[in-house]
Automatic annotation (TrEMBL):
Domain of life: Bacteria
Protein's name in the database: BAAT/Acyl-CoA thioester hydrolase C-terminal domain-containing protein
UniProt domain BAAT/Acyl-CoA thioester hydrolase C-terminal: residue ranges: 84-270
One GO MF term attached to the UniProt entry: fatty acyl-CoA hydrolase activity
Amino acid sequence: MRESDLTDPDGILVEPEGATTGVLVLSGSSGRIETDRCRMLASHGVAAASIRYFGGPGQPGEARMMPLETFDDVLADLHSRYQRLVVLGTSWGAQAALLLGTLHPEIDAVVGISPTYVSWAGLSEERPQRSSWTLRGEQVPFVPFDDEAIEEAVKDAGGELPSFCEAYLSALEKYADRVPAATIPVERITGEVVLVAGGGDALWPSVLFAEAVRRRRTAHDLETIVVTHPEAGHRVVLPGEPLLAFSQRFDWGGSEQSDRELGTLAWPEIAAVL
């Protein structure tokens, strides 16, 4: 097995001998390079790459106004060398994975862990709000955050870690006129789609979001696999992965046991599209 560092942008590629599938692995809003997940996937015989898509040299300093073209070169490289191309993203990375699936017909499968069905405003305290993503220099349509609902969630937490599920739902209601344009056109994804969501997700209601993706694709006679666990949270742990340290500013929901149980439930479906 060969492991190499990628540059421009920064990243990693782990290549087992004889691999026929290449998978791009995208982190959530941490922006980290998913080294452990790449190594785990490579142990199952697939080539796995992960890149930094914000916070690096020449990139946005936060998860805001990030060009979707950032992923073009690594996708093209994987596509040129492997028979099958998959994108696997978590949370903010699942948002990117679904968007990339609508833009790149060569992608054979999209796996979204703790996904969303709309594009959101970028994660920034700067106002006015801007999109998380750009495409050809233009902002991808987005749903803004409800700042008042976020402040209320922090207040209600009373010094404990806040849950933002209600704040996300409030934003969808408050900015309902923005939702149609911001909804990811998942019916354009020609490949397979697997979504993984925990019913105990306290960051955002990922099961509701995953079901919204499935409904939209079902309306176009497209199959979508959704794997859920009633108690799992936002950070799903796949078999063989360590439990990574997440920011302690939010309530992620779930527990290590339930998060691992959901990862175990989801793994056969993920392995099938790999």
